[in-house]
Amino acid sequence: MTAVEIQGVSFSYGKMPFIEDLSASFAAGAVTSIVGPNGCGKSTLVKLIDGLYRPQAGRVLIGGRPTLAMRGKERARKVAVLAQASRPPAMTVEALVACGRYPYQCHEGCLGPEDKEHVESALALAGVERFRNHDLRHLSGGERQRAFIAMTLAQDTGIIVLDEPTTYLDIRACHETMQLVRRLNAEMGKTIIMVIHDLDLALRYSDNLMVMERGICSHAGTVDEVLESGAIEHAFGVSIHAVGSSFGRSYSLFPA
Ligand SMILES: Nc1ncnc2c1ncn2[C@@H]1O[C@H](COP(=O)(O)OP(=O)(O)OP(=O)(O)O)[C@@H](O)[C@H]1O
């Protein structure tokens, strides 16, 4: 089953077409990473999925429904998008996580018992309960990232899109974030789509990969299929060596 489908999408920022006739699909219940060199259009694609940008041609479907046919709150009940890390707002972790409930709130914006339950379980799942009263600005990068992931969990969507969730994190926090992603997928059946620069993390923690090169999808498939295709080597100009160990496979990448 397909969670998100991109059908013949074209998009340009100015006069020059940037994304042209892009088609791709993201499988439901899978962890898919979008990888590609700087500036190839990964974040643009995320914004198209989020409905922030309107394609000049083609359409994006979420659960079979065109994104632009949905109102903002309806879309936000289907897909939670965590944008690239920016300066953290001055608020507590709990207040941030409560923001994830906005698609379910009425005009007054107060939380009902069901909203509060979702906030509590999101705090617990992301492992940030003990920081609930902490100011986001005083957390470490890894703790803060988990707080933002908790906010997307409170949104209670089947699909979560993470744009560079490991930026600024040290190696341990990177792996913890990826393990959380895998747990959300395995235990809650979440479909995860993430943009990720660290190819080793993408290869280790994803089921599927989509490789982008300047506005196009050059290859998509399972990790093994994409590795065999040579699309990553082509896109990044690297060679990849897989190393097996009792801890699983890891990947070394060298300039070609
Ligand atoms: N708001 C904008 N207006 C004009 N051009 C833009 C805008 N946002 C992005 N671009 C351009 O579109 C291209 C793709 O940008 P995008 O951020 O989607 O790439 P990316 O693959 O996510 O890059 P990175 O890996 O560096 O984050 C880049 O050349 C960028 O300069």
TrEMBL record:
Signal peptide: none
Membrane topology classification: Peripheral membrane protein
Gene Ontology MF annotations: ATP binding
UniProt KW keywords: ATP-binding, Cell membrane, Ion transport, Iron, Iron transport, Membrane, Nucleotide-binding, Transport
Alphabetical list of Pfam families matching this protein: ABC_tran (PF00005)
Classification via SMART domains: AAA
Keyword Iron: yes
Subcellular location: Cell membrane
Domain ABC transporter residues, every copy: 4-239
Keyword Chaperone attributed: no
Superkingdom of the source species: Bacteria
Xref: InterPro entries: AAA+_ATPase (IPR003593), ABC_transporter-like_ATP-bd (IPR003439), ABC_transporter-like_CS (IPR017871), P-loop_NTPase (IPR027417), Siderophore_ABC-ATPase (IPR051535)
Protein known as: Iron-dicitrate ABC transporter ATP-binding protein
Taxonomic source organism: Raoultibacter timonensis
